[in-house]
Every structure is written in structure tokens, then in C-alpha cells.
Design goal:
Layout lengths: L10 E4 L6 E5 L13 H7 L1 E5 L16 H14 L5 E6 L1 H12 L4 E7 L7 H14 L5 H8 L2 H6 L1 H12 L3 H13 L13 E6 L7 H10 L4 E5 L5 H4 L1 H16 L4
Parallel strand pairs: 2-3, 2-4, 4-5, 5-6, 6-7
Antiparallel strand pairs: 1-3
Length: 262
């Protein structure tokens, strides 16, 4: 299958112009708004770049299927367009896969790496089936199942308004964008690339994440030289369920870059 043309991603760039750049990459079925809890703190210390994956939010929706390389080249093109030579990169779920691809494909562009609630290889049969279901029945057909994977039962009971907001983000995802990214997850396998990553790496896992398990996070940690793993009491969208803990871990890992004084 031929590689797709890159797309011009919708993005928000904020924070001090002379600060080191930090890129935040969203999960399947979400937008750059998934990082709203982290952004106020991170943009005080970093030039913060958030963007919508292709097929999500306000980014273009090319016909699928997509490959993880397509999503990675979209991100590289965005960095080029903004004249950003290098940056630290934090991605969650499919955003984490994009981070693995970038750090192995273009190591000079990635200073430090944070891989959240992700896996080097997801369940291909599940995401193939989900792509077909969404194309046939719409994103609403999988919304309840996705929200159950995104948040623990305790969080869903205690914070129904937050879950409802996340559900609105999910339901706003275009069918083709969601299905195309499901197919990227179906086909992506970063396991052979992990040992090529040289950027200092923090892996964050949700203790109750059914989509990207702690075992899968341990596989990433064990395969990337000198990577470190932190487990947070949350399900898949740990940055929303445990925002303070996630933000603190990101800041601690990026402190050497922050201290460069650029």
C-alpha cells in the first residue's frame, strides 16, 4: 500500500517563545483538548505544541486506512512548518506509538520521550473489528465500550460530567478518521524499533488500563535503553483520571530539558 500524503494538522502553540518545545499527541478518539488539565502548567515552562491527529478534531480527514508512519510524518511536517528543529514528545495511546516511531525514525528531532498508556503492539483483531464496526454503524456504536476502557468504574461514578465531556469528544470524531486510526493501530508493530530509541524515555502506565496493560508498558521499558516506568492508579486516559500525578511525572522527566535555559 502506498504511503499517504501528509496533512496539515490543526494545532495550538503556546507558552514562552524561548522555552524548550514539548509536543503532546492525543489518543484514538480524542482531540488536543484531552490535555486541557496539563496545558496550564506545562505552557508556563515549555513552548507547548498540541495537535489533533489526522482524522480527529479539526485536522483533515483523508480516506483510510492510515499507517503509523503517516501519523508520524504528519507530526514531522508540523515541526518543519513551525521551524522547530527538535522537541520533547509526550504521546498517549496511539500518540505514544507516534512517539516511538519518531524517536526511532528521526532520533535527532526528539530530545526526551514520554510514552503514556500505550503499547508497542496492540491487538490487531480487536482494532480491525472496531474499524469495521465504526464504518458500518458509526462511532456511537462503540462509545460505551470505549468509555469503560478509558476510565475506572470509580472515576465514572464520581466524575460523570468529566466522562460525559470525554464522550462528547469521542462522538465528535469523524467515522473515517476513527476507523483509519484503528487500522493504524491494527498494523503498527514498534517492537523491533524500541532498542533503536536513544532519547531518555519515561513510560507511564495505568494500573487498571485494559487497552494498554502494565505488562505491555514493562515490555517497552525493558526494550528501550535506560527507560523508566511509573504506574498510576487509573485506566486508559490516566492524564484525565489522575491529572496532577501525570503532570508531575512529565515535569520531573523533562526537568533536564527545562533547565537548559533556552
Amino acid at each position: 500500500m502506498t504511503q499517504q500524503a501528509v496533512v496539515e494538522l490543526n494545532h495550538v502553540l503556546e507558552g514562552p517563545e524561548d522555552a524548550p518545545v514539548l509536543v503532546l499527541s492525543n489518543s484514538l478518539g480524542s482531540t488536543l483538548g484531552m490535555w486541557d488539565d496539563q496545558a496550564p502548567v506545562l505552557r508556563e515552562r515549555f513552548r507547548l505544541l498540541r495537535y489533533d491527529q489526522r482524522g480527529h478534531g479539526d485536522s483533515p480527514v483523508p480516506s483510510g486506512p492510515y499507517k503509523i508512519e503517516d501519523l508520524g510524518r504528519d507530526a514531522l511536517t508540523l515541526l518543519d512548518r513551525l521551524e522547530i528543529e527538535n522537541a520533547s514528545f509526550c504521546g498517549l495511546s496511539i500518540g505514544g506509538l507516534v512517539g516511538m516511531w519518531l524517536a526511532s525514525e528521526a532520533p535527532g528531532r526528539v530530545e526526551r520521550l514520554v510514552l503514556c498508556c500505550t503499547a508497542a503492539r496492540f491487538d490487531p483483531e480487536m482494532y480491525d473489528a472496531r474499524a469495521s464496526k465504526v464504518r458500518a454503524e458509526g462511532v456511537g456504536s462503540i462509545a460505551d465500550v470505549v468509555l469503560e476502557r478509558w476510565f475506572t468504574p470509580q472515576f465514572r461514578a464520581a466524575r460523570p460530567e468529566t466522562v460525559e465531556s470525554a464522550g462528547s469528544m469521542l462522538l465528535g470524531t469523524p467515522v473515517e478518521g476513527y476507523a483509519g486510526c484503528c487500522e493504524a493501530l491494527r498494523d503498527a508493530d514498534m517492537r523491533s524499533r524500541l532498542r533503536e530509541i536513544r532519547a531518555p524515555t519515561l513510560v507511564i502506565a495505568g494500573a487498571e488500563d485494559p487497552a494498554a496493560t502494565v505488562d505491555q508498558a514493562e515490555e517497552i521499558r525493558d526494550s528501550i535503553p535506560e527507560a523508566r516506568l511509573v504506574v498510576i492508579e487509573a485506566a486508559h486516559l490516566a492524564n484525565i483520571e489522575q491529572p496532577e500525578a501525570m503532570t508531575l511525572e512529565i515535569l520531573e522527566h523533562l526537568e533536564p530539558v527545562e533547565g537548559d535555559g533556552r
